Amino acid sequence: MRAQFVLSEIGVGLRRNLTMTFAVIVSVALSLALFGGSLLMSDQVTTMKGYWYDKVNVSVFLCNKSDAESDPNCAKGAVTDDQKKSILGDLEKMTTVIQKVTYESQDDAYKHYKQQFGDSPLASSLTPDQMQESYRIKLKDPEKYQVIATAFDGRDGVQSVQDQKGILDNLFGLLNGMNWAARAVMALMLVVALMLIVNTVRVSAFSRRRETGIMRLVGASGFYIQAPFIAEAAVAGLIGGTVACGFLVLARYFIIDHGLALSEKLNLINFIGWDAVLTKLPLILATSLLMPALAAFFALRKYLKV
């Protein structure tokens, strides 16, 4: 097979169906940009989970005098010194689950509340004796919260067991929902791109049916006849994939590093690095090359009798 002939046929085919080729490039670029974006979103959620779950604490709040009057869990009165020692002793025994236990007194809780909510009208009416003592527990595995809840929830002297992870789960659930929505749009765009590729190949094969007929008469092989059409689709897809890679690189640069500069404005979020973006680019380029080529190959088996 002469490479020069194949290349010339690719150029002719792309120019002859310029409008449809452009549509293929755009649809492939958008669908693969969404594909890459959904992969990066998954990496971002995973990174944020690892960062924030490592910081969450389980809090065992102890009963105070106010709770004894209003909370059924504290009906037996405020926590006693013996109960506190018993709770702490049991926590210290759970070395396979717990990494660190920190005691927070009522005065400490009051100071922390004043620091965080000092402007609140409620802050001026609170006193230290209304605050709750607590044990702040750092888990080795944040997923093991239920072990602590089962062991201490409902115990004498314990008002409640709270897990900060539950708050984060709502956030990550929202992010995962957005990610799945992006994947649904991506799947729709991929279907549109495949339909455009198949239609473009079909039109291209129909417009050159005379040439392919002559080639069959002179004994050209099926692959020799199909190769220019497959290559046309692959080239158009590769251009679209390159554009998609450009979108992702520019998005990372302008949204996170510069422009919006979210990395500077949202210091609490641990954003993914350039390595996560760069590792996705080869996958996008390979997909942009193989997907149109395979679509064209199977389309030609139906629309080009060779």
The structural domain count equals 2
Backbone shape: elongated
**Helix/strand class:** alpha+beta
- Strand order within the widest sheet? 2-3-1-4
Count the beta strands: 4
Largest beta-sheet details: 4 strands, antiparallel
Mean pLDDT across residues: 80
GO biological process, one term: cell division
Domain FtsX extracellular: 56-161
Membrane topology: Multi-pass membrane protein
Subunit structure: Forms a membrane-associated complex with FtsE.
Give me the secondary-structure topology.
Elements lengths: L2 H14 L1 H36 L4 E5 L2 H6 L10 H13 L4 E7 L1 H12 L16 E6 L5 H8 L5 E6 L1 H43 L1 H9 L4 H36 L4 H4 L8 H30 L3
Antiparallel strand pairs: 1-3, 1-4, 2-3
Helix pairs in contact: 1-9, 2-7, 2-9, 2-11, 7-9, 7-11, 9-11
Overview of this protein structure:
With 306 residues, the chain is an alpha+beta fold. The chain is 69% helix and 8% strand. It contains eleven helices and four strands, in the order ααβααβαβαβααααα. It has a four-stranded antiparallel β-sheet with strand order 2-3-1-4. α7 (165-207) packs antiparallel against α9. It is elongated, with a radius of gyration of 32 Å. The mean pLDDT is 80.
Brief synopsis:
Belongs to the ABC-4 integral membrane protein family. FtsX subfamily. This protein is an alpha+beta fold and 306 residues long.
Task: Using brief descriptors, characterize the structure shown.
single chain, alpha+beta, Alpha-Beta Plaits, 11 helices
